[in-house]
Design brief:
311 residues; mainly alpha; Rhopdopsin 7-helix transmembrane proteins; 3-stranded mixed β-sheet; two-stranded antiparallel ribbon; 5 strands
Length: 311
């Protein structure tokens, strides 16, 4: 579409991951396997929590939300990557790009808030056990979970509107594998200093703040665990907390690396982005089943066994 001497972009071309043409099929198979494992692994966690009455507690209710978020983030990013690898289909419409960017930031920000909420839940359960049941009631849990989704949607609406009110009238090749703010800013035919600053403050600072709150919660949690006299009690407490802290680090470190440097054009950025958009959703169910004793026991029961055999 043209107006005078100015051309407005109606579609974008996702350059994707830089690779040799002969690697298209192998990469397709690898990412397809990751995608299927992500969907099935997180789906298994949701199903296990829903059918096992022993897991009907706030911690696992929040874990259901996390698994659903991991599934939907993967669905928002990976299918387009797969078509690029196999069919070399790299074109995405302007509207499709808007939807993808909105979806990713909506789900990603909701997950960011959810990690913080899960840390608060563990803080109450371990540091304030006498008040935990009265504080974390079903209605409170529902309101808190709804708040994470609402916060994520408001954040994403702001970021998406602030991004796409800018003019795109020049090149349309997105040097990335999905529509994201740092890559899209490089295509804007206007000054993007304000947008880069807003991205740094709104996304980078938000992620960093949540991360600091989580680490603070775990500082209190570790101190409380060390005061537990029972060795089994300490082991169980570390078991439930280790999984959550591990997935938090796996998610926040690469995310902070990208969004605290919105103007960066380093090739490493794409690799880091693959990690937190594709690999992390796969790792979460693995980490939770390996590190969490209650989840392992529930999966054991789901398979028809009575209890996990001690090592």
């Amino acid at each position: 579409m043209q107006s005078g001497n100015q051309t407005f972009v109606t579609h974008f071309i996702l350059v994707g991951l830089h690779h040799h043409p002969k690697l298209g099929v192998p990469l397709f198979l690898i990412f397809l396997a990751i995608y299927l494992l992500t969907i099935s692994g997180n789906g298994l966690i949701i199903f296990t929590i829903l059918v096992d009455a022993q897991l009907h507690r706030p911690m696992y209710w929040f874990l259901c939300h996390l698994s659903f978020l991991d599934m939907t983030i993967s669905c928002a990013i990976v299918p387009k990557m797969l078509t690029g690898f196999l069919l070399n289909s790299k074109v995405i419409s302007f509207g499709g790009c808007v939807i993808q960017l909105f979806s990713f930031h909506f789900l990603g920000c909701t997950e960011c808030f959810l990690y913080t909420l899960m840390a608060y839940d563990r803080f109450l359960a371990i540091c304030k056990p006498q008040h935990y049941v009265t504080i974390m009631t079903r209605s409170v849990c529902n309101c808190l979970a709804l708040g994470t989704w609402l916060g994520g949607s408001l954040h994403s609406i702001f970021q998406t509107c602030f991004m796409f009110h800018l003019p795109f009238c020049g090149p349309n090749e997105v040097d990335y594998f999905f529509c994201d703010i740092p890559a899209m800013l490089r295509l804007v035919c206007a000054d993007t200093v304000i947008n880069e600053l807003v991205t740094f403050v709104d996304i980078g600072f938000l992620a960093l703040t949540c991360f600091v709150l989580i680490l603070t919660s775990y500082g209190y949690i570790v101190a409380a665990i060390l005061r537990i006299r029972s060795a089994d009690g300490r082991r169980n407490a570390f078991s439930t907390c280790a999984a959550h802290l591990t997935v938090v680090i796996v998610y926040y470190v690469p995310c902070t690396f990208i969004y605290l440097r919105p103007g960066s054009q380093e090739p490493l950025d794409g690799v880091v982005a693959v990690f937190y958009t594709v690999i992390t959703p796969l790792l979460n169910p693995i980490i939770y089943t390996l590190c969490n004793k209650e989840m392992k026991s529930a999966l054991w029961r789901l398979g028809g066994h009575r209890e996990v055999q001690p090592h």
